Here is the input.
Amino acid sequence: MKVAEFHRVLATRRDTEHGQLANQLISLGSHLRAEKLNYVAWQRGFPRSVRDRAPGPFVAKLRYKAESAGGGLYEYDPRTTALSQACVCKRKAKKPLSQCIHSCECSAVADRDLFSAFLGLYVEPCEGIDTLDLVEANAAFPSRRQDLGVAPEAGGRSVGTGHQQRVRRRHPAGRRSLVRIAKRLGRAARAPRSDRAARREDQNPLPRPESGSASLTAA
Here is the structure.
């Protein structure tokens, strides 16, 4: 019953936060774009994270709110666009997940996620295949440099959250994990045996026998 109540509270809070975030996005514009992803496949690699955050229901709610506001949500295929690899100069290069900055030889430097979102604005379907219009993206990039975490007056160096490393999110600790953490912290906080013995003697001082005298034990 406690676990069921916990999941009920979690679902209610998640639904409220999804609605607030969707309203913030709709206030910026009713015509939205996003990558078409398989959220069910995420459950194999991130089961607890998907269970707690529910990206699929959030996208469904965002689409409903966008259509109610007179717009819509367009989902493009990431396999044909490859926004994380593309640049406005038509170069393509694969990046590891640990790389947070998009840096190219054409002096285009920007936050990786923001730059991919910027390129997503210029994805159009061509003969049933989503393609990226790099000509329009290259023309609009100079006016959007400041929005992508780049300071033009600093010579194209990234500012803000650009140089910050990714924060690894951990799953909520389970019951067994909490017990292991408590034991680990207890062992780390425990002082060496010699220090404990000295501290015990300071707390409970015993009279020391004089030289030449023997200690007596009651039978």
